[in-house]
Design brief:
CATH class of the largest domain: Alpha Beta
Largest sheet: 7 strands, mixed
Shape: globular
Structural class: alpha+beta
CATH architecture of the largest domain: 3-Layer(bba) Sandwich
Number of strands: 28
Helix content: 25-40%
Strand content: 15-25%
Number of helices: 26
CATH superfamily of the largest domain: FAD/NAD(P)-binding domain
Distance between the termini: 61 Å
Number of domains: 4
């Protein structure tokens, strides 16, 4: 029998709280912290599916795109059932949004701040399976709010008991304590101007009582006796925002602003006015069922070492294979004689290497922008796939700040200045008084990789919403965050930031706004051998690590259920055209030449052979279209775009071609072409820009042209296929290949589909002097796309 580590729900102090396991105090309320906590006895099969039966069908070969948690969860389940699995990842590291990497100076840099709640049963199951469960550190069972001036909002146990009796009476079952523990500990003592005395009278009592009433009238209370029914009620609330629901139940706007907004930002990166009531209440429903469901853990070190690493080792030990830096250029597919669509391969590339990967089952374990780039445009004729384009990602910026002292040490100024021993708040921290809704001192919470002898705090701050920060230079972001940290912790005055990092993700979690849940796709698709995984896909949880893990389990189950059918399809294809795949592998650079891949154009001529002067009539047409877009662009759209500036010239210090490659790659990842935001600092003022339809000079004009197009994009995506540096005898240059897909907001809604490449010629200071695009369509065909209605586009 596994041992339990028992932790009391203690009030917050300015110190790290160290409590020995198995200490007995009769007056404390104890919560269990072992991963053996059987949260799955909530009986919600959708959230916590039972262990799958042993697979007895034929062995399958499965190709997975994406080595994030969803892809690796899928792989683990399939390998456990005896299948053959290959995972392809375009990045040089695994983990996806939970990934991390080490920079040249040895600093671990994360994609975001990751915490593990006690209701993450599927993720904990995976971690136990791969031996990573020992890598979690349990934190005090307190949701801690930090207000301006260093005022800490915590929860003493006597206050929980007071409100317990107030709402439910003195006789309370164990499960009710879970609901109250979460709701009350984060509700009381939020507002720095309130003291304990205010809890029994005046404005504070009123505000807290309204909170209690709102939650008492919610499905959260129903979950105490009927979890399945409560979750169905929660699903039915997807069409309204949490603010609308909360206010309709008697909650107050002050409670939303000071308490629930930070929680919403931490969960979904958007505020209560914009987040679905389903998203918030899903979490609260789980927290209501058991006390330990809201108990928080964090990794002892970086995700790559302590989460992704053990999963990777398990997959390799089971015979699975990782293929890093291999990106999927295209999904190749065909239709059978009975009209059914099936995938015939993934067209893959790594630098200049190309290949076609074939399998029995194909899984796209991507995020929202990734799956939009990958799906063939013709598949949008299915509502199933077209619905995906109704989902959009939320931008988020993660900042790390290393100090020469302990920022969150509030009780002892001298202790905060010494570097011999770590000191401060060892927990996830919320705040309503900064642009980062949640943060933590990783040197305390995850010391294995982040505590460095002779150095101090490593604050990791999550900026939500991230939109205002995306176009800002890193130096300005760091300055703003540092100033806000000082406002929260005045005692940190005089401490210096010795190192910092900024990670921008243009689209992270999908925006879980009201009415978006119906657009989440199932893991099983209309294409019989093509499956999806990812936290955005359909599962009774939110976009999170737990949701990603659960989606992988569900994808694996669908694949195993279809085992016989998938093998039958394999045999049918082998008999039908045994030599066609060999022919496809030996084709030239254009892998979509009529084998099975679908193209958006009728031809894909070689870019080099089509290097010829654009006819004058086309130049006139392009100029006319540009002027038309300018006239159609409304003033409100223009004013909105004017508020978004290009990245300033002092953001980067370019010292070589590698720096240019890194910056360009970042611009592509942030979808510069469809947002209008690019790093102008690496271009010369008189840089030449050209494509098959137009040629002009000046980076300011390029910036204006980009911003002119942005309001007309509908469901856009631009994916970087590969980027590589080249050095010849005459000049340095960078070559990037990419894929653009977007509808235009014109009455006939044309679809623009262009696969292209860009050559960036550099001067001796490594600034871009020429930006030259080549396309897989001619200038005439490109103009033709612009005037072709969607309903008139060919499907071949």
């Amino acid at each position: 029998m596994a041992s339990w580590a028992l932790l009391p729900a203690a009030p917050v102090t300015g110190r790290c709280l160290v409590i020995p396991a198995r200490t007995k105090r009769s007056s404390s309320f104890w919560v269990r912290s072992s991963l053996d906590t059987n949260v799955s006895d909530m009986r919600v099969n959708g959230l916590f599916p039972p262990e799958p039966e042993f697979y007895r069908g034929p062995k399958l070969k499965v190709a997975i795109i994406g080595a994030g948690l969803a892809g690796m969860s899928t792989a683990v389940e399939l390998l456990d059932q005896g299948h053959e699995v290959d995972i392809y990842e375009s990045r040089p590291f695994i983990g996806g949004k939970v990934g991390s990497f080490v920079d040249k100076k040895g600093n671990h840099i994360e994609m975001g701040l990751h915490v593990f709640f006690g209701c993450y049963s599927n993720l904990f199951r995976l971690m136990k399976k791969v031996g990573a469960d020992e890598n979690l550190l349990v934190k005090d069972h307190t949701h801690t709010f930090v207000n301006k001036g260093g005022n800490i909002g915590g929860m003493s146990w006597c206050l929980i008991l007071y409100f317990t009796n107030l709402i439910f009476g003195s006789q309370l079952e164990h499960q009710y304590m879970g609901f109250l523990h979460f709701c009350l500990q984060i509700r009381l003592r939020q507002y720095r101007e309130y003291s304990i005395v205010h809890l029994v009278s005046g404005k504070t009592t009123y505000d807290k009582a309204r909170n209690a009433v709102a939650l008492a009238l919610s499905p959260v209370v129903k979950a105490l006796v009927n979890p399945d029914g409560a979750l169905q009620d929660v699903r039915n609330l997807d069409s309204i925002s949490f603010s609308d629901w909360f206010l309709s139940k008697g909650g107050t706007r002050m409670s939303i602003q000071r308490m629930w907004d930070p929680v919403a930002y931490a969960l979904g990166f958007i505020d209560c006015d914009n987040i679905s009531a389903r998203c918030m209440l899903t979490i609260f429903t789980l927290f209501a069922t058991k006390t330990e469901a809201s108990l928080l853990r964090m990794l002892k070190g970086s995700p790559d070492v302590y989460l992704s690493g053990p999963i990777r080792d398990y997959i390799i030990a089971k015979g699975g294979r990782f293929h890093l830096r291999w990106g999927c250029r295209e999904i190749l597919y065909d239709k059978s004689s009975d009209g059914e669509t099936y995938v015939t391969g993934f067209s893959m590339s790594r630098a200049t290497n190309k290949k076609i990967v074939t399998a029995d089952a194909y899984v796209a374990a991507c995020d929202v922008p990734g799956i939009k780039r990958l799906l063939p445009s013709q598949w949008r004729e299915w509502n199933f796939f077209n619905n995906v384009y109704e989902l959009v990602g939320v931008p988020v910026v993660t900042v790390q700040l290393r100090y020469d002292g302990w920022v969150t040490e509030l009780q002892d100024l001298e202790r905060s200045r010494q570097l011999k021993q770590a000191s401060g708040l060892d927990n996830l921290l919320y705040t309503p008084d900064a642009d980062f809704s949640c943060f933590a001192d990783l040197a305390l919470t995850s010391p294995e990789d982040y505590y460095i002898e002779g150095q101090g705090s490593l604050l990791q701050c999550v900026l939500t919403p991230g939109d205002p920060y995306m176009p800002l230079p890193n130096e300005e972001i760091i300055a703003r965050v540092t100033k806000q940290v000082l406002a929260l912790f005045p005692s940190s005055q005089g401490l210096e930031v010795t190192w910092s990092s900024v990670v921008k993700i243009g689209q992270s979690l999908y925006r879980e706004g009201p009415g978006k849940d119906p657009f989440r796709p199932d893991q099983k698709t209309p294409v019989k051998n093509f499956f999806l995984a990812g936290s955005y896909t359909k599962q009774d949880y939110i976009d999170s690590m737990e949701g990603a893990t659960l989606s992988g389990r569900q994808a694996s189950a669908y694949i195993c259920d279809a085992g016989e059918e998938l093998v039958g399809l394999r045999k049918k294809l082998a008999a039908q055209d045994s030599g066609e795949y060999t022919k496809a592998v030996n084709t030239t650079d254009e892998l979509s030449l009529g084998i099975r891949g679908i193209r958006c154009s009728s031809a894909a001529p070689d870019n080099n052979s089509n290097k010829r002067e654009t006819p004058q009539v086309l130049k006139i047409a392009v100029s006319g279209v540009t002027e038309l877009l300018r006239l159609l662009s409304s003033s409100n759209k223009a004013s909105r775009l004017n508020g978004v500036s290009d990245k300033e010239s002092d953001e980067f210090s370019v010292s070589g071609i590698d720096d240019v490659v890194t910056i360009l790659q970042s611009d592509f990842e942030n979808a510069y072409f469809v947002t209008g935001i690019f790093t102008s600092a690496i271009y010369t003022e008189d840089c030449v820009f050209e494509d098959p339809t137009i040629r002009f000079q000046g980076k300011d004009l390029y910036s204006r042209n980009l911003k002119l197009l942005v309001p007309f994009f509908d469901s856009p995506s631009i994916g970087l296929e590969k980027i590589e540096k080249g050095i010849d005898s005459e000049a340095n240059f960078v070559l990037a290949t990419w894929k653009l897909r977007t509808y235009l907001k014109l009455p006939w809604r044309p679809l623009i589909c262009i696969d292209g490449s860009t050559v960036y010629d550099l001067d001796d200071k490594f600034k871009i002097v020429r930006h030259a695009e080549s396309w897989n369509v001619s200038a005439i065909e490109a103009i033709g796309q612009l005037f072709t209605p969607t309903y008139g586009r060919s499907n071949d």
